[in-house]
């Protein structure tokens, strides 16, 4: 459908076509793991930019995805949108569910001027993980309002395990927040049963979307493409 829209714009003599892909669904496959596999991020990038002049997306899973584009491609962050939402809610500490998300949580903590902490994760299978509180960041305080921040929530296994761990550690409340809310199968209900709230941006239609990345995408449109 996206390729058809791009083609229709060109056929209508559009001066420029800038493609906004809030959730780049094929970005996780950014390299070949087995012989004969397609690198979906690169393949999709090639098809999009055949008739597009530029691309904007949000919170890619890997920096390699932007490198797949030959045309101008920019990545908006979902952090400001989530931060704007959390600024209106009780938050004592932000939590990264694994070491890979520390930079994301630290950046949000800087915006909100809140402490942060991290968990260490060992994956058991596609839906189950084992977590423990890492020796970095701020320790959880008894009765504190904690927010787990991630880029993508898909099966919900990590968030469920993190929420249960933090509750056992004495958290007063645990909320989950993410940029991309996939919520596969019964993930939303599973997370809802162990948290006090679930927040997502509007990159995907889902029952938790409460923060908009539109202002952040608009800023890139103006700064990168508006003067051309």
Notes on the structure:
This protein has eight helices and ten strands. By secondary structure, the protein is of the alpha/beta class. It folds into two domains: 2-77 and 216-225, Rossmann fold, CATH 3.40.50; 79-211, Rossmann fold (3-Layer(aba) Sandwich), CATH 3.40.50.2020. The strands form two sheets. It has a seven-stranded mixed β-sheet, with helices on both faces. Helix 4 crosses helix 5 (102-112) and helix 6 (157-168) runs parallel beside helix 7 (187-194). The longest helix is centred in the C-terminal third of the chain and has 12 residues, at 157-168. The chain starts with a helix and ends with a helix. The model has no long low-confidence stretch (mean pLDDT 91). It holds the Pfam family Pribosyltran. GO terms for molecular function: ATP binding; kinase activity; magnesium ion binding; ribose phosphate diphosphokinase activity. This is ribose-phosphate diphosphokinase. It catalyses: D-ribose 5-phosphate + ATP = 5-phospho-alpha-D-ribose 1-diphosphate + AMP + H(+).
């Amino acid at each position: 459908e996206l390729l058809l829209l791009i083609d229709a714009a060109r056929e209508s003599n559009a001066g420029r076509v800038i493609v906004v892909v809030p959730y780049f669904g094929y970005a996780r496959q950014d390299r070949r793991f087995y012989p004969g596999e397609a690198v979906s991020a690169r393949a999709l990038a090639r098809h999009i930019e055949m008739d597009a002049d530029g691309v904007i997306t949000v919170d890619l899973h890997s920096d390699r995805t932007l490198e797949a584009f030959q045309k101008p491609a920019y990545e908006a962050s979902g952090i400001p949108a989530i931060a704007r939402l959390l600024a209106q809610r009780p938050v004592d500490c932000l939590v990264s569910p694994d070491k890979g998300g520390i930079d994301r949580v630290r950046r949000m903590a800087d915006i909100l001027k809140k402490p942060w902490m991290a968990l260490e994760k060992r994956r058991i299978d596609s839906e189950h993980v084992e977590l423990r509180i890492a020796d970095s960041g701020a320790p959880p305080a008894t009765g504190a309002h904690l927010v787990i921040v991630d880029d993508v929530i898909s099966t919900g296994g990590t968030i469920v395990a993190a929420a249960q761990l933090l509750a056992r550690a004495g958290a007063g409340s645990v909320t989950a927040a993410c940029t991309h809310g996939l919520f596969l199968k019964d993930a939303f209900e599973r997370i809802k049963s162990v948290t006090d709230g679930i927040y997502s941006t509007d990159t995907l239609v889902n029952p938790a979307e409460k923060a908009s990345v539109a202002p952040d995408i608009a800023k890139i449109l103006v700064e990168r493409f508006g003067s051309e």
